Each structure stands twice: as structure tokens, then as C-alpha cells.
Amino acid sequence: MVWKPHVTVAAIIERDGRFLLVEEHTSSGLQFNQPAGHLEENESLIAAVKREVFEETAWQFEPEYLVSIQLWRKKPRSPSFLRCCFAGQCHSHDPNQPLDEGIVATHWLTREEILLQQRRLRSPLVSISVDEYLSGQSYPLALLKSFIDTEHG
Questions:
Q1: Looking at the domain that runs over 6-143, which CATH code has it been given?
Q2: Alpha helices in 86-139 (DSSP H)
């Protein structure tokens, strides 16, 4: 069997000291997460994070930089996730846009409010990513290259 991590994207969106999180149904009950999801076939990482933010929050997202690339596995037999975490701004909210299945609500929470929800975070990467963002970690989007459907030769 070939081992492959799940490739996911996540967005850190901060406004006035508050971070945009989604509250969603999971197999562990209602949990909080950054707007996040899986990379789809024939999609760049930047397109994926823009799509996921819109589908989960109804906000248009413009990534400005990469905060970190995180490899995470909860337990030895659990799936592994390679998570690309972006930071940027959102604009043009569409309150009539239905949110992805499973999303109950969106919330703007302070770091302290996020830490108070520690037991309801989808993974430890939620608070780790906020702290990485707040510490000033940033890498240019130019690091990311997509070579999809190109011919060489």
C-alpha cells in the first residue's frame, strides 16, 4: 500500500484582533476550525484556499502570504495531513450564500476565546496556526508553484 498524506489548506483571517473560525459538525461533535479543506484535483493551493474560505464562510479571500506548512497526524494509525496555512484578508461577504454542509456558523474570536475553546478545536493546528501568525511567520506566495497539465520535452 502506498502512503499518501491528505493535502489540505487553511486560512488565517484576522480583523481587529479577532480570527474568523467556522463551527462545524464532525465525528467528534461540534468543533471549531479555520476555514479549511482538501485540495481538489487540477487545483492550485491558492485556488483551493480561496474556494474553501468562500464555501465555508461566504467571504471572498485574498491570500497574502504563507504562514506555515504543517505535517500532522493525531495517532500512529490515523491519516496524515499536509496542511498549507495561508494568511490574508477577506472582503465581499455574501450573506445569502449557503455554507458548506456541516458548517453551523462562523465566528470572529480573539486568541483568548480560541484558547478557551481548546477542547472543541478540530486539531491543535488551529491554535498553533494563530500563534505562528501572531509571531510574524510569513513566507511569500511565490514559493508555491503549480505545474498542472504541462508538457515537457
A1: 3.90.79.10
A2: 111-116, 125-134
Query: What residue has cell string 485556488?
Result: 47
d(CA 24, CA 10): 14
Q: Say how far apart CA 117 and CA 131 lie, in whole Å.
A: 15
Per-residue pLDDT of the chain (153 residues; tens, 9 = 90+): 688 999 999 999 999 999 999 999 998 899 999 999 999 999 999 999 999 999 999 999 999 999 999 999 988 888 999 999 999 999 999 999 999 999 999 999 999 999 999 999 999 999 999 999 999 999 999 999 988 876 665
Nearest 5°: the CA angle 138, 142, 148 is: 130
> Could you tell me how many residues make up the chain?
153
| The C-alpha cell that represents 59 in the structure block | 467571504
Output phi, psi for 97, to 5 deg.
-75, 120
Supply the Cα-derived Rg of the chain in whole angstroms.
16
Query: Which one, of 98, 76, 57, lies nearest residue 3 by Cα?
Result: 76
- Through-space distance between the first and last CA atoms of the chain, rounded to whole angstroms: 31
Chain center to CA of 19: 12
